[in-house]
Amino acid sequence: MKNVEIGCSASCLLLKDLKKGLSEFRKNNINLIEIVDEYPQRLTKRRVEIIKKFDFEYSVHGPFIHLLLPHPDKKIRRFYLKLLERSLKFAKELEAHEYILHGGV
Which listed residue, of 4, 81, 91, 94, carries a Cα 20 to 30 Å from 37's Cα? Predict the structure, then answer.
């Protein structure tokens, strides 16, 4: 029989302490974690440090609420590109195997 990998999105930790939630995943033999980089769970240096203490395989779901990459205003586009650059930087720090992005309208 083939080994089965069990994964979970960290979005279910919305109302929980991140460290406690990741510990629960570990206790339940969950190996693959999708980190959602969206308000109110935006990745920060502090959150990344907590996440890196756990030995999971990660994917990161980039910001998606009101993501306006094709916006006609250059300032707004620049803002969202900086947001994505920051998110991708944190995904790289986590050694994420995937980065999920919905490009907006």
Answer: 4
